[in-house]
Every structure is written in structure tokens, then in C-alpha cells.
Amino acid sequence: MLFEKKLVHGTLIRRYKRFLADIILDDGTEVTAHCTNSGSMKSCLENGAEVYLTPVNDPKRKTKFTWEMIKINGSWVGINTGIPNKLAYETILSGLISELQGYTTVKREVKYGDSRFDIYAENEMEKCFVEVKNVSMKEGKYALFPDAVTSRGQKHLKTLMQVKAERMRAVMLYIIQRSDVEIFAPAKEIDPKYAQALKEASEAGVEIIPMQVKVTPQSIELVRKLPFEI
Q1: Which Pfam families does the annotation name (predicted)?
Q2: Topology of the domain comprising 8-77
């Protein structure tokens, strides 16, 4: 996935009120950027770190930039939680994820019961619902999700189990926006209920696919599927 606009480089001053971040651009201008990540951003938040922003020309927006990535320990970490959904849609549509190839119809934001899944795909043989989550938290060699308690995430897992019970394919797709990790796992200490729900979902036949991506100021590209421990 290529960025549509040239990103703007700067330095993080601080992130606050969850959705705002003050940035100093290279020319010395101080701006406020929108932070799409509502989580704690644990292990990917460092004042004084390099960042990249997307300029936004929308008169309805109070902030004129969207925060895309931050450099942590020498490598870029993607923090825009809107990117994984777009990337997943493009890669499934193009058949770039081997486990999710062969679908003739791929749609975004499809309702199922009282939930809404990020992606729905089908062919003559099967129907498939895919929920996508952004992963940016790191602990040692592990990529962990979530970085804050998520009752919404627990609900998605339970609904995926319902999908599977109705003999359709159910997939939990984690997009890991950092290159310095080797294994995916649920963050049991942060949200033990989510970790338990993920274990139950896996045992019920919900597929877990953790995909690592390489983040650069020009693009975000799939790298590999990571092993996982639940």
C-alpha cells in the first residue's frame, strides 16, 4: 500500500487527550495532528521521537495532519489504526494473503447481526467474515494485542464464533505494524478476558492470522505471517 500523499516529517512533543499530538515540523512550525489510535500506545510512544504525518486538506477537520508513524529503536512503527483495514482489503482483493485467496467478492464494513465486520469475502464455495485489528505493542520478541482493555474486541470474537457455528469461515486478522517482533500473542496482563475469548474462539474454529508489515514513509507492505501463542 502506497501513501497517496507525501508524508511530512517532524518530532513528537507530546500526545494527549488520546486523539491529539503536538508535533514540531522540520521547518520549526508547531502543529497538532490527529491520532487515530485510542489505545495506550504502550511501547510505541516516545516524546522527542521522529514522526511522519499525512497532510489533510479538509475544511471540516480541525487538525490539518494525521499521525502515521513513529520511529522507535531505529525502526518505524505504524500507529494509524485506519491503515490495517485498508491494507487488509487491498491485499485480500489482490490475493496477496495466501490463506485468504480465491474470493470473487470482497466488501468492507459488512453487518452481521448486531455487529459489523471489517471485511466480508465470498466465492462459490464459502462465505468468510474477517475482523481486522491493528497491533503496535511490543514486549521482548512478542507483538501483543490489545494495549488497553477492549470490550468491543471481546464482542467481535464472540460474534466470530457465531459465524463459525453457522458453518461460515471466521477469521481474526492482526496487522502488526512493526518489524522488531517475532511472535504474536494476546496481552493477557492487560486484558485477560480478551485473551480467554481469543483462546475460546481459536478452539471453536476461528482462524487466527497475524501478518507482519514493513512500515516506511513511502509505503506499508506485507512481510510475513508470524507464529502465535495463545
Answers
A1: SfsA, SfsA_N
A2: OB fold (Dihydrolipoamide Acetyltransferase, E2P) (2.40.50)
